[in-house]
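User: Hello! My lab partner asked me to get a predicted holo structure for this protein. The small molecule is magnesium ion, SMILES included with the sequence. Please write out the C-alpha cells.
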Amino acid sequence: MAAMTRILAVANQKGGVGKTTTSVNIAVALAQQGLRVLVVDLDPQGNASTALGVEHNEDAQGVYEVLVGAADLGEVLQPCPEVAGLLVAPATINLAGAEIELVGHENREFLLDRAIQGYLSDVNQAGEPLDYVFIDCPPSLSILTLNALVAAREVFLPIQCEYYALEGLSQLLRTVEMVRAGLNPNLEVTAIVLTMYDGRTRLASQVLEEVRAHFGPKVLPTVIPRSVRVCEAPSYGQSVLTYDPSSPGALCYREAAHQLHTLTALSNSGTR
Ligand SMILES: Nc1ncnc2c1ncn2[C@@H]1O[C@H](COP(=O)(O)OP(=O)(O)OP(=O)(O)O)[C@@H](O)[C@H]1O
Ligand SMILES: [Mg+2]
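Assistant: Hello! Below are the C-alpha cells for the protein in complex with magnesium ion.
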C-alpha cells in the first residue's frame, strides 16, 4: 500500500486569525510525537519560517524557487533546528513577486501540487514517507492560496473567536467549492480550530457556539486560548511548544494536534 501523507492547507483569507501559529504549533506537536512533518511556508511574510527558526533572507532558496521551477522542493528544505522530524520549505520575500510572474504560466495552479507530489514520491521510494504536510497560506485568495488548495486534500481552517469571525468565511468556502468542481475534486474542509479564545467575553463563547452549530464535529473540541506566551514565542524563533511547553497555549495545541490526528480514522476516505 502506498504511504499515506495527509496534506493540509491551513487557510483563511482573513488576516491575523492564527493560520501561521496553528500551522507551526500543530506541526511541532506532531513531530514531537515522532511523526515526520513538513511545513510549506506559502506566505511572503515568512512568519512560519521565522517561528520555526529557519533561514529565509533574500538569498535563501525557498518556495519561490520551487514555484518558478528553479529548484526542486527537496533542495530548499531546511530542518527545524529545535524539533527532530520537522522540515520547513521557507518563504522569502521573493515569493511576493510570484503572483505577477506566474500570470500566463500554463498550469500555474498546479505548480505546488507537482512539487509536493514529486517530493513525496522521492521520500516514499527512499522508505522515509512523510506523515503530514501543512501549507501555511497567506491572507488572500491569491494564486498562492489556490496552489495550496490544489495541492492539499484537506483544508484546515483556523477561526478567531471575535465578532467578524464568520464574515468572509463564505468567500473561502465558495473558493473551496470552486476548486472542488474543477481543479481538485478531493478537497474537503476537514478540520476547524478556534483560536485566541478569551473565556471572559460573552462574545467569544457566542462565536464558539455559532461555529459549532454550523460545522459540527469538524470543529476540534479543544479551543486555543489567547495567551501571551503564544505570541511571544515567534520572536525567539520558536513555537510555543518549545518556548514554554507547559503553558496553556502549548497544552491546547498539543491536544488539538492529537484531535486532528485522530480525525484521520473518521474521515480519511481520500486516496492521496
Ligand atoms: N492563541 C494566541 N494567543 C495570543 N496571541 C496569538 C494567539 N494566536 C496567534 N496570536 C498572535 O496573533 C497574531 C496573528 O497570528 P498569526 O500570525 O498566526 O495569524 P495569521 O492568520 O497567520 O496571520 P496572517 O494572515 O498575517 O498570515 C500574531 O501576532 C500571533 O502571535
Ligand atoms: Mg500567517
